[in-house]
Design a protein that fits this description.
Blueprint (H helix, E strand, L loop, with lengths): L1 E5 L2 E5 L9 E5 L6 H15 L3 E6 L16 H8 L3 E5 L6 E2 L9 H8 L7 H9 L9 H9 L3 H12 L15 H6 L4 E5 L7 H16 L7 E5 L2 H4 L6 H17 L5 E7 L7 H4 L2 E6 L5 H10 L5 H4 L9 E6 L6 E5 L17
Parallel strand pairs: 3-9, 3-10, 4-7, 4-8, 5-6, 5-7, 8-9
Antiparallel strand pairs: 1-2, 1-12, 10-11, 11-12
Helix pairs in contact: 3-10, 4-6, 5-6, 8-10
Amino acid sequence: MGTWTCGDVTVPARLRSQGFGRHTFLCGQSGSGKTYALGVILEQVLIGTGLRMVILDPNADFVGLGDVRDEASADQSAKLRGLDVRVLGADATGATPLRLRFTAMPRAAQAAVLRLDPIRDRDEYNAYLNIEVRSGDTDIVDVVRRLREGDDAARALAKRIENLGLGSWEVWAGDLPSASEVVGSGARVTVADLSGFMDPHEPVAVALDLIEQLWLQRGSRTPTLIVVDEAHNLCPAVPQGPIQTLLVERLIQIAAEGRKYGLWLFLSSQRPSKIHPQVLSQCDNLVLMRMNSPGDVAELTEMFGFAPPALLATSPSFTQGEALVAGTFAARPSIVRMGQRLTQEGGRDVAVPGV
């Protein structure tokens, strides 16, 4: 993943592949090289393990994982080019469409999308529970059609769906494969580019569907690394709205129980205090880059007791690309410098133009 230097001696820095059988947290403030470092680690995980990978990518930073750089060695290039990498995104991105299938979602997830409460909206909720979804129905448009054929409560629910504008969401799969179906088809890497949607609820709904389907299929025990970039947005300490609330609840469950099913989280964020503590506290691996906030460093020191406080305290002095690695995937806590990316970056910073 990079190099470790002691005096005049520089040696390769390596992580234990089996260590990714625990949840991991990567943290660094803006400008520390956090996103670049995450890409470096993910590339090495793909080369050195057989893990399936699902990446929730809110800023299109990892859409180039299938595009190998010329600087990669012949062996690295062959391994990376041989991977089945699927990049899915909103229509505006030009990628393969990122979709979800409403009729395949669990009932609780469907209710969250419809913003239905079983007590407050009891009549509409009951109509929703009793709707007959037929084999030919694929998405929300078909559901609305069925509701219009029903009683007053069913027709009221149809109006709710129309008023929420759900019919205009581009995220519905229709005749296209959903993101969870792409994952299930055998893709080694599925990058869900969550940028580019008009309605801010759409990317959260897709993320929820992916996480729900992975959890529903946990009995297959397929080793899977679930990468959540900008985790403070998808797994916040204080979730907003029913879709995000259900997403956070499921991530909490995976954090607590996912290891025995081969579901491992890799969270990345510049705002550790904004991530739900019941998820963050389950992480047994830490990659810490530059963090200037004394409050954040103090919180990380308390949260990650396996990382030496003296090393954590040096984080504000790290240069770009330096990181403290500690936990089950590191032989010992060490400060390392990240190596070069082997695939294309999707989200470099914009430079200030000259005159």
